[in-house]
Amino acid sequence: MDIPEEAVLLRIFIGEEDRVDGGPLHEAIVLKAREMQLAGATVLRGAMGFGHSSRLHTSKILRLSEDLPLIVEIVDSEDKIDAFLPVLEGLMTGGASALVTLEKARVLQYGPKAD
């Protein structure tokens, strides 16, 4: 699988407690991206953050059960990302509060370096 040098970065900001069909939203996003043969997806967990509600989410010891911020990042061609966006929208119909961004990305390497 190749990614063009001029690609797109899809970044999805959600909460750890966001769900779809009874399971974690971030897992559903990654599995759907894999099913659609996108180049890859990574879930990053934030130690602290807030969103449109201005409610602070933190990983402090006394508040381990808080809804920590997650970021799902996917880089692929613009066409493949554009095809994924309606699917993503369908996954986030359960009331998940999300921020979704797109930006141009220059891919310098994907996979092992050629000798």
Automatic annotation (TrEMBL):
Q: Which domain of life is it from?
A: Bacteria
Family, similarity comment? Belongs to the UPF0166 family.
- PANTHER family under this entry? UPF0166 PROTEIN TM_0021
- What protein am I looking at? DUF190 domain-containing protein
Q: Which organism is it from?
A: Kaustia mangrovi
At the highest ranks, the source species' classification is: Bacteria, Pseudomonadati, Pseudomonadota, Alphaproteobacteria, Hyphomicrobiales
